[in-house]
Structure formats: structure tokens, C-alpha cells
Amino acid sequence: METLKSLDEKIAAAIEKVRALKEEKAVLERRIKELEQSLDEKNQELEMLKTEKSTVKSQLEELLNELESIQL
Predict the structure, then answer these.
(1) Neighbouring C-alpha atoms within 13 Å toward the C-beta of 2
(2) What is the largest CA-CA distance in the chain?
(3) CA distances, 30 to each of 20, 24, 26, 27 (Å)
């Protein structure tokens, strides 16, 4: 009888461990999703800044060319 009680306790502990791991997995999956979304937002922001930088660089080059032609 003692063996069955010990086995039952081990099974109960294993079930509890599985439940806890499932909960932890769900939490981690949500966190991963949040981090991926944040990364996507940062990548979009980076692309916008690259585009803006390129535009500003072109405008600056045009202005420098204009200034150069005026000085001549």
C-alpha cells in the first residue's frame, strides 16, 4: 500500500510540474511575441530614419552644388 501512495505522490508531483511548465511556456511565448513586435517596430523606425537620412543627404548635396555654382 505504501508503494501505491509513493507512486501516487510522484504522479501528482509530475502533473503539477507539467502544469507549471505549461504556464511558464505560455508566459515565455507571450514575451517572445512582444519582443518580436518591438523588434519589428524598431526595424520600421530604422528604415524610416535611413530613408530620411538619404533624403537629407541628397538635399544637402543639391544645396552645396547650388552654393558652389553661385560662388563661381
Answers:
(1) 0
(2) 105
(3) 16, 10, 6, 5
Determine the straight-line distance between the first and last CA of the chain, rounded to whole angstroms: 105
**Angle at the Cα of 40 (from 46 to 30), degrees rounded to 5?**
150
The Cα 62–Cα 66 span in angstroms is: 6
Q: Name residue 33's amino acid.
A: K
The x, y and z cell numbers of residue 55, run together, are 533624403
In the three-class reduction of DSSP (H, G, I as helix; E, B as strand; rest coil), residue 72 is classed as: coil
Structure confidence by residue, pLDDT tens digits, 9-64: 999 999 999 999 999 999 999 999 999 999 999 999 999 999 999 999 999 999 99
- Residue 9: CB atoms within 10 A of its CB come to 10
